[in-house]
Amino acid sequence: MELLITGDKAMRYVSFLSMVLMSLALLAPGAEARQLEIGTTAAVNPATTGTPPGQESRTLFIGTNVFFKERIATSATGQTQLLFLDASSLTVGPDSELVLDEFVYDPGTSTGTLALTISKGVFRFIGGQISKTAGVTIRTPHATLGIRGSIIQGDISSVQLVATLIAGEELAIETCPTPGSCTTQTITRPEYTGTVIQGTISVTKASGDQLAAQGTELEGSTGQSGGADETPTDDQVASSGIDQTGSTVDPTVIVDPIGAGGTDTNGPTGCCLPPDPGEADDLGEQTTASQDTATDTSGSAAVTIPGVYSGTAMDTPDPYTTSFGEFIADPLAQAFLGGPDPDFHDGFTDGAVVDGRFTTTLDGDPLDVPIVLGEFSFAGVPVPDDPVDDSVTGTGFLDPSGAFLFYEVTFDSDGTPGFLFAGIPTPDAVFAADSSFRVDSYELRPDFILGSAIPFLRDEIASNFPNATVSDFLLARATSGPLGDSVNPFKTKTLWAALSIEGQGAGQKSLLVGTAGSLFELPSGEVIIAQGLRGSARLVASDEAIRFGSGIGTIPGGADNHFFGDDLDFFVLDQNFVFEDGGGGETTFFDAAREQPLDLVTSPTELYGFRHVAMKIETPAGIGDVRTDSDLNGYAAGIGATRLKTDVFSAPYLLANGDPLDVSVATATATSSVTAIFDLEDVLDISDVDSLKFAFGGSGASRGAFIDDDLFGARDSAGIAGGVRLDATPGVLEPGLAREFSPFGFRSFMVTQGTVPADSFVPAGVTFCTCEYISWGYWTSDFRFNFDEGAPGLDPNAFRRERVHIGTWVAGDLPTPGEVAGLSGTANFIGHLLGPVDDNGTRYIAAGNFSQSWDFDTDEGQITVTGFDGRDFASTADGITAANARDFSGTLAQTSGTGTIGAAAAGSFFRGSSTAADYSGGTIAFTGSSLAGPDYKAVTTFAAQQTP
Prior knowledge:
It is a single chain. The chain is mainly beta. It contains nine helices and 58 strands. A hairpin with a 4-residue loop joins strand 11 (about 145-155) and strand 12. The longest helix is centred in the first third of the chain and has 18 residues, at about 10-25. The chain starts with 9 loop residues before the first helix and ends with a strand.
């Protein structure tokens, strides 16, 4: 009979727990004082003793209740498992000691506090309800562990603490070698281990041997009975009443917290216990590590890795002027601006990892700093600096493969940041060889200065969107030819996006940001990533949207290589768009990221920089499997806002199309490209904008990325003929009616819902259409005039800006009208509608359910909308009709909800797997009066599929 769980096998744990709880029901003694009970022994392999406060030690058996402040110890052969009232469990191995410091639990809210002190031994903790809310604290002689929603495994000796995140959310390790001087490392990747030795934390990938050795000490063996006199039988299990015991039953006891029922000599917030008196001699033999060392816990000698490292070191520049002439005075706000300027970027080609040290030469001065495998921290490490030597404190990382490393530091003299990365360059053969199509996924490490959970953005923005959907950074390999092919370029594509729509109505915040680009080769032979960031956010529903714009580019190492590891395993991205000028030198065009309000008078542009280390991770199953060459058509919708150069704003206007041929989305497998055009009109004719034409991506271009049929996106492309245009009322834009936009004044991004799936904001009862053969998603855009016509300074449209925050689009395989005309009978379609709302100056995204009934014999039908912005709508008496069998239109009237609002719909049928009309898609524009006032307007796209 197995008495203690092994590894992270949850099903094994469940079946085992049922057995030991049955034993508990049969064998539990009943003499303890229940007002202090916090749990019970679910399994015991004697000898294990417990010492409740103020009582004598007793031997623990299965079912023995354990108490607040009880001290528990196992013998050299002992093991025990404790099950707490919140369904947490703790398993400890032989020769272990622990104290149950603190337990408070309210079953009504599933909240409380759990704190333990483990002074030595091997242990495994599986979090219960408390772990999912407040987190659990385990204090050890070397560090304090903070556990949230996780399973962890650890080993505490007199010399070190080793703790591994087996599964779950987070393991935080804090050590305070001296009072007031604490270091914390947080592990969020399962099977990574933190090791603490004399105040130094290092993080490595957990080894199988290490976990197996710990597991053996936690494993029961044949013949053991968990402290029961005899092994329980199946009949006893059946009659034990186990269904009334354990985590499925609400606990009724809430134990006094620390300080209410006793004292804690270590203190409720203390970090570390004094060493066990019996281990003092062992500790005395240990040497004290200086701050300028980091300890290798991989089980071998100080790490040495063959090979020469190429890399770059970066300082924060002095007050800096960008390539656009903008002045940035605050060094800490700059975060590493400056592009490849040698004053701030110092490349090197002589890096080495030898005997636990990383060495190189920076600007003629030697650099010699500690290094271990995994992630580690350090303090007071001396570094050369000109004109005065300095020291740095921070964190470092060396990948277990040895192919890549980085340091994130602050200078001790003035607190300014620095960054250094290096690696073994990716071999040239990887770029030159033909390659079959595949998709690589990368995790973008947060910028350690910005501290933002959403890459490329400041935390001041990102912190407003804690539930954002953030994609991996995807790299789709070329189907043939070199990865940076300069003859047939742009076949190796990149895609990344983030979307968040949080809340509804006036309390909503929303964000869409993304980038699409490619690998390409400079004339000098360097293969690089250089692309642009596009996006916008609305933090308050009554405010104008903020736009984001930046270059995104890989930073070269000293050997002009931009990728590291055997197979493009690592690279580093910053805000610089670097290209080669005609003279063979490098030019930085975008050397600062911009966060730009529409109102530039009261809210100036924020300028900043970022650094993101890209680390290859496992690509989720299915990505890149289904790729189809397609030519889709459909509908798009958005709300436009105008700002003139004098900061005069015009009323928002609705953009949509009535003809499906005005919206096209094409994907190409050979070049992994996306080409899209949205030709939209002011459907209410309330502005001086007659129409706007948006172009995205392009065949054989770097601005669109086609990963698969569900994952693709593209950014603005002024290179598509006639694809970027504003038509306006005659006389407004003189001398002509059409105004072409400069490539540098046109910034747009479109992406599929599959890339950034998000539906948590939709009201209850609303469900997005699965729509397998229809594509749909989101888009954002910002247009700017970049010239001044007529008399200088007098053109009212000079530097005029048109901004669309989050719009929506839908596209499918459009049949001919004749194909739909050949259908007969009736059909019903079920789906959703989604789009922006302007309720008298308050703007947000709303969603609702869409249904359509249709008679293909009469080309007539009905449309019903429910739950959109708290209102329901249905077709008017005239119904919905189709002039050409495929494309339909009609009006809707409000049937419930506040206000008086009408709507106009236009849509088409699309092919699926069986007929020419398996799907329906289109746009609906709403106008009228709401409780907030007479100026309510909204515009949406809908997608629906035929029901059986």
